[in-house]
Amino acid sequence: MILVPITFTGGVYRHDEVIDYIEDLGGYIIQKHEMAQEMVLQAVIPKEDIDRFTAFTKPLAGEVTESPLVGSEIAVVIPSLEIHHLPHSACDIAEYLRTVGAKTNMVGLARGFGKRISQLNDEERDVINEHDLAIYVLGNFETCIEEKFNGLRRGVNVPIILTGAPPLEALKRITDPPAAGYVGNLGRFMHRTRTEADISRLDAVVEETARVLNEIRDEIAHDPLSVSPARLKEVIENGVPEIQEVYSPTPLTVQLTGLRIKLPFDRYHDTIRSLPVEEDVTIGDTAWISPSRMRDYILVQIKPFSETHIVV
Amino acid sequence: MTLLDAFEVECFEEIGRDFYKQITETVLSDHNLTAVVSKLRIFIDPRIPIFVAVGTIRDAGAAVRISDIGSIQVQGDNTIISIRDETYLAQFLTRLYTIFGHDHVDQPDRFTVIISEVPIPENFENIEIVNRADTVLHDLIYAMTVIAPEGFKVRREYYGKRQFFYAASENTLPEHVVEEMVSAQFAEIGEEIV
């Protein structure tokens, strides 16, 4: 069963039926936003049931759209978050990706600015590596990007989308080894993105991100995960009631191949490791559980089928 | 940007140059400096790396007086000032507190200031609150810090009566190199550094 990410936008009225229907189809809710009378549900549902689900939501005046960014956690990496240089274009990029369903984190490097002096420390590297994808928002000069990019990507093993002011071809030319994706014509500009031309720059980022994420998904499909991250989310929600008391917007952040649990590692990792997913199969059997470099969170990385020979 | 007599950004990378031209325009208008700058020339070479901005200002002149900030109405014992332009409101209120004391000055809402139970001095509306000429070069240098690329922490700045320059790099460059570059840029806009 292939699960595809979707966004449902509709009214609060009878939305519990929509949630039930998604669960009946075998899908999972990833995030639920309730804003006054409006409801935005990000979920994954079986590919073959999209039409059935759309037909079900029609009488409720809901809208169903496929959104490839749902269920991914993306790092937006920026050389500095210096106050003199606000507003940063990266803020708009991170925010825009959120509107289409991704969970983005901004990673402002401590000493990432400059050409000769730019650095990436081990904490920053590890935090970036905990994401599905990193978007590097670099500046306006080809000369600088060429020199600093290799330093800033050292040790980063997640796919990188490189963005900057030079056109796409120039970015491709100056990166060796190549990055997973490129978006040109972005760079540093000192205004918020309001005009149509600016928005189309952001759309280009979304498009490229979706393309790279789909490539990652295809790669995962060759050696499928032992359990779907969305399912694991549900298991933890039911098994660890304390998660309901966490005030983060996403107490359980779903990634393409894992989860970030916003509970203290020391106190909860044993509980989570021994939670049963199905009879005789615990979370510990299907995933690596390690402390996250982000605060004291727990990072769950699901093992592939080739490792466990289990699919639940 | 039509207000500037001369404005140019020089860089061997065309795309970077266009971006910096746009950044400069945005920053100057955000800081209300477009009307103040007369000539501005920016030179960037990311290979050295260096960022040099040189320019001259117009007579920034005009003092901001109370009559520019709002209109004054006397109603019995009270004087009511309706604020038109709140740019210098903070400095204006500070001045009122010094003249009349906190007990007699009240701001019931954003656009109203009431001075109660004290006589208003003659020529009250002509009291000078801010003189832009005192701060404009300062503001300009700050704007240059904003425009300059991130990470260019080693900087040298100068402002005289009419001219200013701002040079920044991430490396410590020899003094004579910077000076030569700055005077070359001044020569480009038909000026000689004083």
Protein architecture, described:
- The complex is a heterodimer of chains A (312) and B (194).
- Chain A has 312 residues and is α/β, with parallel strands linked by helices.
- Chain A contains eleven helices and 15 strands.
- In chain A, β10 and β11 form a beta hairpin.
- The longest helix of chain A is centred in the C-terminal third of the chain and has 27 residues.
- The model of chain A has no long low-confidence stretch (mean pLDDT 93).
- With 194 residues, chain B is α+β, with helices and mostly antiparallel strands.
- Chain B has two domains: 113 residues, no CATH class; 69 residues.
- Chain B has five helices and eleven strands, in the order βαβββαββαβββαββα.
- A five-stranded mixed β-sheet of chain B has the order 1-2-3-11-10, sandwiched between helices. Chain B has a four-stranded antiparallel β-sheet with strand order 5-6-8-7.
- Chains A and B meet through α5 of A and α1 and α4 of B.
List the helices and strands and how they pair.
The complex is a heterodimer of chains A (312) and B (194).
Chain A: E1 3-11, H1 15-25, E2 28-35, E3 38-46, H2 50-57, E4 63-66, E5 73-78, H3 89-99, E6 103-108, H4 122-129, E7 133-137, H5 142-152, E8 160-163, H6 168-174, E9 181-183, H7 196-222, H8 229-239, E10 252-254, E11 258-261, H9 265-273, E12 276-278, E13 281-282, H10 283-286, E14 287-291, E15 298-302, H11 305-308
Parallel strand pairs in A: 5-6, 5-7, 7-8, 8-9
Antiparallel strand pairs in A: 1-3, 1-4, 2-3, 10-11, 11-15, 12-13, 14-15
Helix pairs in contact in A: 3-7
Chain B: E1 6-10, H1 14-30, E2 37-45, E3 50-57, E4 63-65, H2 66-69, E5 70-75, E6 78-83, H3 89-100, E7 105-109, E8 112-116, E9 128-131, H4 132-147, E10 154-159, E11 163-169, H5 175-188
Parallel strand pairs in B: 1-2
Antiparallel strand pairs in B: 2-3, 3-11, 4-9, 5-6, 6-8, 7-8, 10-11
Helix pairs in contact in B: 1-4
